[in-house]
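Exercise 7. Given the encoded structure of a 96-residue chain, write a plausible sequence.
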């Protein structure tokens, strides 16, 4: 019972640190984003994701930059597209 409580406490501590930590390692960033380390490595090699290499080897990631990157290229809903099309048509006098 005491061992289980310690495991739960350790998990809560790890998750709290993980969610509040500003700078993440590659392992942490991959886990945070829900991608494999190999895919994260591919993104860094292609310079498609913001990262830091202070000593030229290990990559570090700013959690807020990762969140911003993850939320880029938003895909509009069908309703939003329809509303934009209707607004465009109304602005142009109904003609396409």
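Solution.
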């Amino acid at each position: 019972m005491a061992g289980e409580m310690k495991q739960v406490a350790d998990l809560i501590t790890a998750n709290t640190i993980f969610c509040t930590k500003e700078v993440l390692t590659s392992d942490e960033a991959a886990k945070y984003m829900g991608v494999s380390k190999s895919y994260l490595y591919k993104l860094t090699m292609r310079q498609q994701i913001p990262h830091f290499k202070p000593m030229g080897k290990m990559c570090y990631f700013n959690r807020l930059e990762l969140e911003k990157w993850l939320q880029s290229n938003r895909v509009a809903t069908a309703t939003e597209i329809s509303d934009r099309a209707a607004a465009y048509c109304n602005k142009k006098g109904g003609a396409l």
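Remark. The chain is about 60% helix and 5% strand. Students should compare their own answers with the one above.
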